[in-house]
TrEMBL record:
This is Sortase. Keywords: Hydrolase, Membrane, Transmembrane, Transmembrane helix. SUPFAM superfamilies: Sortase (SSF63817). It comes from Lederbergia lenta. The active site is at H115 (proton donor/acceptor), C172 (acyl-thioester intermediate). The chain crosses the membrane at residues 7-24. InterPro entries: Sortase, Sortase_D, Sortase_D_1, Sortase_dom-sf. Pfam families: Sortase. Gene3D superfamilies: Sortase. GO terms for molecular function: hydrolase activity. The keyword Metal-binding does not apply.
């Protein structure tokens, strides 16, 4: 019986160590992506210059898996990197931008997604009226949450043309769920003039 107990303790230590290592790797990846995003914002994107040499949101495009922007969440005192794509590799680096959606300033839906147990760890504190600030190479855009909803994980109806600029931020729900969460929390944030 003592051997069985020792085996369980060793297995527990191994699992905790693996989890800690993965969390450490994610944090390092996120920090590196944040540095890259800030550099990209600082440099601006020469290919997004319009005729009057001012940055143009209409011409902007990010490359897959590229850290190109930051998402500031003042209520949570966080600045997160935004990476092009929502595949597992992109989400390991930060908040993912859904490739089929638009970018700030382009006049319709912008979709950002992130894991509730990494970049959006404290997302349960967000409320109507809280703000997001998206910094991209051609400017800074502020959005205010006007509504939220909870949808099943496979519900893709939230991805659609909306006829106006809306920042849609999604993450897994419930926030404290262990394992693959069955739902998604969706926040709809609108531009602040």
């Amino acid at each position: 019986m003592k051997i069985f107990g020792n085996v369980l303790i060793i297995l527990g230590i191994i699992f905790v160590s693996l989890f800690g290592y993965q969390l450490f790797q994610h944090d390092q990846s996120e920090k590196q992506s944040l540095v890259e995003a800030k550099e990209r914002i600082g440099e601006g994107n020469q290919s997004s210059k319009g005729e009057n040499n001012q940055p143009s949101p209409d011409l902007f495009k990010a490359k897959h898996n590229e850290a190109f922007a930051t998402l500031e969440i003042p209520k949570l005192e966080k600045t997160l990197p935004v990476v092009e794509g929502t595949d597992p590799d992109s989400l390991k680096k930060g908040v993912g931008h859904l490739t089929n959606s638009l970018y700030p300033g382009q006049g319709d839906q912008i979709v950002l997604s992130g894991h509730r147990d990494t970049v959006f760890r404290q997302f349960g504190k967000m409320e109507i009226g809280d703000r997001f600030i998206v910094n991209v190479p051609y400017g800074s855009y502020t959005y205010e949450i006007r509504e939220t909803e909870i949808v099943p994980e496979d519900d893709t109806t939230v991805i659609r043309e909306m006829g106006e600029e809306v920042l849609v931020v999604t993450t897994c729900y419930p926030f404290s769920y262990i394992g693959n969460a069955p739902d998604r929390f969706v926040a709809y944030a609108y531009p602040v003039d």
